[in-house]
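For practice. Any example?
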Amino acid sequence: MAEATKHNTPIKGGTLVSDMKSLFSIIKTRRTVAFAYGFMFAFVAFTVFLAFNPNPNSGAPWFSNIFTTTSTTSGSGSQFSSFFSSFFYSNASSPSQQFQSSASCPQPQPSGSSNTTLIKQPPSQTQPIVNSDKPQILSPNQTSSSPSIVSLAPKNSSSLPVVKNQTQSTPSSDKATVLEANQTTVAAPVTPVAVPANKTTSSSPKSGSSKSDAEKGVTSNYTAALNKQSNGTKSSVSVEQGKDDLIKSLLSCDLFHGEWVEDDSYPLYEPGSCPLIDEQFNCIRNGRPDKDYQKFKWQPKDCTLPRLDASHMIELLRGKRLVFVGDSLNRNMWESLICILRNSAKDKSKVYEAHGRTHFRGEASYSFIFKDYNFTVEFFVSPFLVREWEMPDKDGSKKETLRLDLVGRSSELYKDADILIFNTGHWWTHDKTAKGKDYYQEGSHVYGELNVLEAFRKALTTWSRWVDASVDTAKSMVFFRGYSASHFSGGQWNSGGQCDSETLPIFNETYLRPYPPKMLVLEKVLKNMKHHITYLNITRLTDFRKDGHPSIYRKQHLSPEERKSPIQDCSHWCLPGVPDAWNEVLYAELLVKLHKKSLHEQLQQQKKRA
């Protein structure tokens, strides 16, 4: 049946037409199939070409870069990738549109951390960037390859969380991407908009676990910037808080109960740098071989004594008069302070004695002018604080006495000073004062004999009454410096006493001497005064320092007689040396007083406003 049908001839030549149509249908089908196979082969070849085309900046697999919905392209890789992506996705923006979008609406990026790393990750850990509305969060040990990225985050930016050991990742769209740990991204170039100070980025990543020099530069520069920024942010707060804490500790601290500790940062000025030191105190110039006595500072038990900031103290003294009144031990302290302050003066030629003097013994007073800062540091000689006197004796000669009822002659010259520092003590140990025979006088009466402690009390009472009556303590700060210990061994200053073999302080308190009875008298007088006087009780502080005296180094050139039996100075102090610590105590007390004054003024202002 089938065979019959095949050879059956249709009417009107229909068989010929059908045969021709069948022939052309077969040819048409074969051409179509051939074209389809050819197109597929070309497509596969093109795809293979794209897949293995080298991209030096891409550390991610090729397949996901082609067939995912990303609009991010490598900045220096093959241009076919972006073209192919736009060919398949009608919604993808053109490269020029992406560039404009990034430039006009920059997305804040996380700041690089101090441990920034740029490490190429293996393909198995790669995930493409996907357009998303979620913020971009970088996880630990995350890296990116972004050759032209500049962080737009301002200092202290908290717009995006940042974790250590991570780098920036910049998507080409306005939407951020969430990345998991240990992922690598390939980011398109971004137009630089803002660069935080001292922050840099590496131009290209390098493989391997060790950091390149460029990466070290990123780390070190950024760390330095953070440290600098941190210091700048915290310095004002920490300094102010430190000042407050310091003042609070000083307010409740006994500055005079402590010990001497070694400190290589001392002395406060270099030996030989101050030409104003008297020969009597200039031990190094006079040939003293050891210098360890200069390397100690006074350390109270319950607080820290602040190092004397000479630049700050100069500012505190602007427009003021600071006056020392007393004996040669106050001259010792006066010279110490002048050298400390002069060391911080910008122009030392403008620090000079008012009368051009360069030696400071024999005159009644001296005044050092700090011209650029408009203040003076002065010294008035008054070893007893009361007046030395002369009266006719029975044989017509003049007899020296001490008027216990009159203050020193120069008192009117310094009563208005802004800061007054008094002392007396050593001259009360000399033979004439110690014996007290026909020496002490009140009015026209000369005591045939008077106990030295009673005479000392009378003299201090006269001084205290004068201060209460004549010194405006609302304007002037008044200090009294206590007795400075001597360390004569084997005699007194005029009877063979020595201390030249001492090179170390006393460290065991049991070897300190009892508190001087004269200072007990002083404390009682100060307590009974109408106005408060600050007592600089340096007696115990100095008793430790048997090593600090000039001893035989009180003169540069000794005569042959002096070499045979030199008179040693075991009362005064070498400079630089122990009196520098007295001035540090004075500085601390000034800080406390100024703090109290400031609080008082604030309180008065609040009362006026109320």
About this structure: The two ends are 128 Å apart (CA to CA). The CA atoms of residues 75 and 426 lie 87 Å apart. The chain has a mean pLDDT of 75. The first strand starts at residue 258 and ends at 262.
